[in-house]
Design a protein that fits this description.
- It contains four helices and twelve strands; from the N terminus they run βββββαββββββαβαα.
- By secondary structure, it is of the alpha/beta class.
- It has a six-stranded mixed sheet. The chain has a two-stranded antiparallel sheet with strand order 1-2.
- Helix 2 crosses helix 4.
- The longest helix has 17 residues.
- The chain is globular.
- It starts with about 35 loop residues before the first strand and ends in a 7-residue tail after the last helix.
- The site of zinc ion has 5 residues, from loops.
Length: about 200
């Protein structure tokens, strides 16, 4: 979660009109030709955030939920210099992808974080925010977009692991939360991939 004091989710009940992830495996992934050029994902909307640091060499992808109630409030917040938060990518529940900084530039999504002897994981990671209040089922379209994005990133950078914010900020953060379909997500990424580990 980006900023718990601003986007505390209300724990909304499932929207019965939404496609549940159990149906996602029947859905073709969105874009097999997604590419990265000059550290930007082709086809993503690009809106550069001021909230960023220097050059990084990413080795992890960190999955988050934004805790926001609509598709744009987290983006607006991450584009505001006052927030001092950002992520490289935001994916709406409809699967729309917005990139906020080049993938080799440090964003400010992880906060106080540790993993395998490293701290300040922003220095080593690409952050992906998924629009979700926290308790909602992740729609198939959104997961498919995240899979496509991760496959493109893995093809381009020496990614070692895909982790949750809850992995690197244990006890402090819960996202991407219990609804995030980790095993299916990783299986879809590995399926005819570009050579991930
Ligand atoms: Zn987070």
């Amino acid at each position: 979660m980006l900023i718990s004091h601003c986007f505390i989710g209300a724990g909304a009940p499932y929207n019965i009109n939404e496609i549940l992830f159990t149906e996602a495996l029947q859905i073709k992934l969105n874009n097999k030709d997604m590419e990265i050029k000059d550290h930007k994902i082709t086809g993503a909307t690009y809106r550069e955030t001021p909230n960023k640091g220097g050059i990084i060499r990413p080795r992890y992808i960190i999955m988050h939920y934004d805790g926001a109630s609509n598709a744009t409030s987290a983006l607006t917040w991450m584009l505001d210099p006052k927030s001092k938060v950002s992520a490289h990518l935001h994916i709406s529940r409809e699967g729309s992808i917005t990139q906020l900084a080049p993938l080799n530039v440090k964003c400010w999504h992880a906060g106080v974080s540790f993993w395998k002897g490293l701290n300040d994981i922003n220095r080593f990671s690409i952050g992906i925010e998924l629009q979700n209040k926290g308790q909602e089922v992740y729609p198939a379209k959104q997961i498919a977009a995240a899979v496509d994005v991760c496959k493109a990133i893995i093809a381009q950078y020496p990614i070692q692991e895909i982790l949750g914010h809850s992995d690197i900020a244990a006890g402090r953060k819960e996202d991407p939360g219990k609804q995030f379909p980790w095993s299916k997500f990783k299986m879809l990424i590995k399926k005819d991939d570009h050579g991930t580990t």
